[in-house]
């Protein structure tokens, strides 16, 4: 790594705790010049990382110190709660001017995160032309290609030569700063192909653009969901894709750096969904975090009350054989765990579209077989342990049978529940876990205590 | 979307089950020509998606039908078990020739997935120059920048003009097919900056390359872990980054499409880790899947046996008050669930390096407060329900106290366990869950049954 001397490069290593402490010291001692000296070399992602762990007062002091040179791109990198804090440090006019300096996709992203009142004020303070662009962007559905796209693209007709194209590019103003593909359009401004900039560089001036274009003709409508767009990037190893309106006309392009963010976001959603927590923002206030998690904890509470109701049906059996109470959590835990393994694999397969091409029933069958195999292994182990522990082979046999049943059930329910939810348009990452564990708890307790009542009493 | 007439475009929509069935029919009926007609329009990612749901016999027939036109890039997109199946359909010589046609990063990826014997045979069947490149690639650690990088890069001296650079590019052979950045190197071949190809296109022929380069001077050593490389791409919105050897000389470059795969992989690892399943391959055989999951199920079994041992200490209390057995799963489930919410948020924050810049202790404190808030809410609700259900306010109070305790504990353990594991270099995504639920189960049962023994007997 090329160092810059004294200090590890934060663009590579991230910020060190020591650096954050140093900035915090300077803020606390009221030394804005020292703050500026420390912060100026940081890139926008690092400045965002610095703002997040600070408290509100420190954030305000930091923004105060660097107000005039503040790069608004930082705002796009902040967690929601921190962004609100930072945005408050700017007047409407300053904020409007800062956002108008951004590329249209970043500006759109920022504008949509402001609360309604602030958004309207900021939009009104903007140059009319930029406001019109943002308003059109906001007209596309949330998380759609239209929201992600950059509107400034380079479009050329296919009959141009490489030479004409280079001359045009050298002459034109108002093109994006950097771009990686040129789009070839027909007379109706519909995309006909894509030309990587390197091909324009490498071919002789007299070559026709249409002869070096990639004519796979991929494009996406502005209304397509960003998750599907990300999938198209992955499947085709793209760097850019043109975005078209209803009439198939080129209106913008999406670049892969935005897709990296989408992929991160979607993976995070799946992961947090599986853990049943809607919270993605570690710096949000405790009250807000507590509230967001309550709905999922409530689901858990209802699940577990259902399980308790099942147990209460077998009060008599437990009073007679206390060992049942000791062993019953094992049946539920093993079924729940085996089931969540299956659910996770299914959620991932559905997200990666590994199951769109058929093979679904083979996977269901496979998971039942896996449940059977591991059911036999763990039921034998645990049945033996229980027999030795309580000196009662009947109890061991009942425990083993209930575990077998619950682990096979986990294979069936772990596949069928996510598939069914997905079929009905419900996100399986979020909903499959609670459904599954309710069934493995309720059935686990029911089968174990039920078999015990029949055979041991 | 530009359609291609009859059929939805699989590059955009993925394969339809109908299409897969059609191919399968043609394979079963032994109609290789129909198979070829169906499969030829597919891109490599689609062909990979088609191969995965087929069984071994169908895969062999499909490869047979398209053997001569098979694009080896398909192999890079397959799940491990399917790839082994497909690779077996090729002779060593054919496979060596196919791999030698790939870009060096893809070839390296494929070679390292072969078993030892096959790898040695295939390497020996390759042109010596290509073999040398692969051997050097294999000398870098697994999952390092050196394994990911493309070796063919465009490097130019900074004193060249745009015109000289374009002339050089038009003249040269053996450059990569498409590229998005040129690298500026000093006389010792060390990277000094990066020039997006679009800047070369847009500037007059007499402009010096060094005047239009991005001189942030970012580069990564070949030994850097891919996860850290991905993080640098994210933080700096890069499309390419140069890779350097120990002497800081430019030896290759990593492009963002490979980073998209790394990000997917890392997110998947975290997600599967949290679900305690090492399996990522839904098309692996049941026996293999069952085996891979056993280690995690064993961890669950040990956890839950520990919990059973705790319960067995309170046999007397349960025999006297069966309601304890009915209510005790609630304490464990709520603590475990609240704790896993915290663990997931922490795992994500650690993976995204949101916590490298300090603020750690604030987050621990916050989670304890969140645990306290939600503890109060749910303990009150469930304490009331238990009091009404069993007509015993003492039981309700004991249940509420145990729930409070366990949910505050979940906040503390849910933050401290991942942080501690991370400090000691253990992946918290995999290990934090089992640790956490063991504590919430064991402590949950212990506190609930213990309080009950003291106050209710």
Automatic annotation (TrEMBL), chains A, B:
UniProt cross-references to Pfam families, sorted A to Z: CBS, MgtE, MgtE_N
Keywords annotated in UniProt: CBS domain, Cell membrane, Magnesium, Membrane, Metal-binding, Transmembrane, Transmembrane helix, Transport
Location (main, coarse): membrane
CDD domains registered for this protein in UniProt: CBS_pair_Mg_transporter
Membrane-traversing stretches: 296-315, 321-347, 368-391, 397-421, 433-456
GO molecular function, one term: metal ion binding
Record PROSITE patterns: CBS (PS51371)
InterPro entries: CBS_dom, CBS_dom_sf, Mg_transptr_MgtE_intracell_dom, MgtE_N_sf, MgtE_transporter, SLC41_membr_dom, SLC41_membr_dom_sf
Gene3D superfamilies: CBS-domain (3.10.580.10), MgtE N-terminal domain-like (1.25.60.10), SLC41 divalent cation transporters, integral membrane domain (1.10.357.20)
PANTHER family per record: MAGNESIUM TRANSPORTER MGTE (PTHR43773:SF1)
The protein's role, per its UniProt record: Acts as a magnesium transporter.
Assembly and binders: Homodimer.
Name by which UniProt lists this protein: Magnesium transporter MgtE
Organism: Skermanella aerolata
Lineage of the species this protein comes from: Bacteria, Pseudomonadati, Pseudomonadota, Alphaproteobacteria, Rhodospirillales
């Amino acid at each position: 790594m090329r160092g810059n001397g004294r200090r590890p490069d934060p663009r590579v290593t991230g910020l060190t705790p020591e650096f954050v402490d140093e900035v915090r010291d300077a803020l606390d001692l009221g030394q804005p010049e020292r703050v500026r000296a420390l912060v100026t070399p940081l890139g926008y992602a690092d400045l965002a990382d610095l703002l997040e762990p600070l408290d509100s007062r420190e954030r305000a002091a930091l923004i105060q110190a660097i107000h005039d040179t503040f790069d608004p791109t930082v705002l796009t990198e902040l967690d929601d709660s921190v962004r609100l804090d930072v945005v408050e440090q700017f007047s409407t006019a300053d904020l409007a001017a800062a956002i108008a300096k951004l590329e249209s996709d970043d500006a759109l992203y920022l504008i949509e995160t402001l609360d309604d009142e602030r958004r309207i004020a900021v939009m009104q303070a903007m140059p009319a032309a930029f406001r019109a662009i943002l308003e059109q962007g906001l007209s596309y559905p949330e998380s759609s290609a239209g929201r992600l796209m950059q509107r400034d693209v380079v479009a050329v007709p296919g009959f141009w030569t490489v030479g004409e194209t280079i001359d045009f590019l050298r002459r034109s103003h108002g093109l994006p700063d950097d771009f990686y593909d040129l789009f070839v359009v027909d007379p109706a401004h519909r995309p006909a192909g894509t030309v990587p900039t390197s091909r324009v560089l490498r071919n002789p001036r007299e070559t026709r653009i249409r002869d070096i274009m990639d004519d796979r003709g991929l494009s996406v409508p502005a209304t397509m969901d960003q998750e599907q767009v990300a999938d198209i990037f992955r499947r085709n190893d793209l760097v850019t894709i043109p975005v078209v309106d209803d009439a198939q006309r080129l209106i913008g392009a999406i670049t892969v750096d935005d897709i990296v963010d989408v992929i991160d976001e979607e993976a995070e959603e799946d992961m947090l969904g599986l853990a049943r927590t809607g919270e993605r923002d570690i710096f949000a206030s405790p009250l807000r975090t507590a509230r967001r998690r309550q709905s999922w904890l409530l689901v858990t509470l209802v699940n577990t009350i259902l399980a308790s109701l099942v147990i209460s049906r077998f009060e008599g059996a437990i009073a007679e054989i206390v060992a049942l109470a000791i062993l019953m959590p094992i049946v539920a835990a093993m079924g729940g765990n085996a089931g969540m393994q299956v659910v996770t694999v299914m959620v991932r397969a559905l997200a990666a579209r590994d199951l769109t091409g058929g093979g679904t029933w083979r996977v269901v069958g496979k998971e039942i077989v896996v449940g059977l195999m591991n059911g036999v292994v763990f039921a034998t182990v645990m049945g033996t342990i229980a027999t030795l522990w309580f000196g009662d082979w009947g109890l061991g046999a009942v425990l083993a049978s209930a575990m077998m049943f619950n682990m096979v059930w986990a294979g069936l329910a772990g596949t069928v529940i996510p598939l069914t939810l997905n079929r009905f348009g419900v996100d399986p990452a979020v909903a499959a876990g609670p459904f599954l564990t309710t069934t493995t708890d309720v059935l686990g307790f029911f089968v174990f205590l039920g078999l015990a009542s029949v055979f041991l009493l």
